User: Which sequence fits this backbone?
């Protein structure tokens, strides 16, 4: 089992020192970087970015989905690969509320620790 890196959770360009953690908004999946992103949208971007390490569709270097000989998307599932955390996501779904279209992402996070932590 392995531990997740900063990049796997927070995207490319993330770094930390003893006092700060820097996250590049442009590296968070499904987030449109703006000056005034809400805390909720930033958290969702972090969780969706982290989720991509656990489950998804395999893509090529041009971010095009890869299919098998039956033209079915090829997926991966790594939920058991990491030692201290497991992230499970449901298929996002679209809905309308107050004449606005929304996408709902549902994610479950399981964090493991032993008694000595």
Assistant:
């Amino acid at each position: 089992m392995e531990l997740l890196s900063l990049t796997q959770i927070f995207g490319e360009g993330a770094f930390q020192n003893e006092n700060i953690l820097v996250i590049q908004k442009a590296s968070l999946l499904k987030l449109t970087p703006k000056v005034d992103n809400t805390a909720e949208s930033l958290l969702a971007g972090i969780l969706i970015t982290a989720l991509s390490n656990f489950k998804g569709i395999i893509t090529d270097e041009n971010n095009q989905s890869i299919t098998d000989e039956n033209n079915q998307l090829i997926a991966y599932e790594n939920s058991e690969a990491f030692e201290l955390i497991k992230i499970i996501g449901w298929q996002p779904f679209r809905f309308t509320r107050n004449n606005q279209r929304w996408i709902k992402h549902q994610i479950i996070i399981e964090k493991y620790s032993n008694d000595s932590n």
